[in-house]
């Protein structure tokens, strides 16, 4: 299942970035999954739960935001695509361009801020 390899890459990316930022523990990872990305959010969650234990992201939480499918009509602008019907709902133009809904991407992640050494 390709979610596993996507999530593996995602984890590598977060771990690398977290180390670059100073190596604190990661608490939350946020991703966007497009409605047309072919990526199943449930399988992403499952892969995350399987792959993170034993990694630097062990114990962190994954937040998945599903991005609706949107297309742009050159005349009328962006509209939300209902049931894969890509024709512009205002002017009937069928030559529209998908602008969102195909992505699988890392949005952001949070790191715990460890309390500093007590100072006197
Ligand atoms: Zn239009």
Present the secondary structure layout.
Blueprint: H1 2-20, E1 26-34, H2 41-51, E2 61-67, E3 70-73, E4 77-80, E5 97-100, E6 104-111
Parallel strand pairs: 1-2
Antiparallel strand pairs: 1-6, 3-4, 3-5
Bound molecules: zinc ion.
Zinc ion is lined by residues 73, 75-76, 88, 90-91, 93.
Short account of what is shown:
25% of the residues lie in helices and 30% in strands. The chain is α+β, with helices and mostly antiparallel strands and 120 residues long. A three-stranded mixed beta sheet has the order 2-1-6, covered by helices on one side.
Keywords, please?
3-stranded antiparallel beta sheet, 25% helix, hypothetical protein PF0899 fold, alpha+beta, 120 residues, 3-stranded mixed beta sheet, binds zinc ion, 2 helices, elongated
């Amino acid at each position: 299942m390709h979610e596993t390899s996507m999530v593996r890459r995602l984890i590598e990316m977060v771990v690398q970035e977290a180390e670059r930022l100073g190596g604190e523990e990661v608490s939350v990872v946020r991703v966007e999954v497009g409605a047309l990305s072919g990526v199943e959010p449930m399988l992403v969650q499952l892969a995350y739960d399987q792959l993170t234990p034993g990694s630097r992201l062990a114990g962190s939480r994954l937040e998945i935001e599903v991005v609706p499918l949107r297309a742009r009509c050159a005349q009328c602008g962006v509209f939300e695509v209902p049931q894969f019907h890509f024709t512009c709902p205002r002017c009937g133009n069928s030559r529209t361009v998908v602008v969102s809904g195909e992505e699988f991407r890392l949005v952001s992640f949070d790191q715990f801020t460890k309390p500093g050494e007590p100072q006197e």
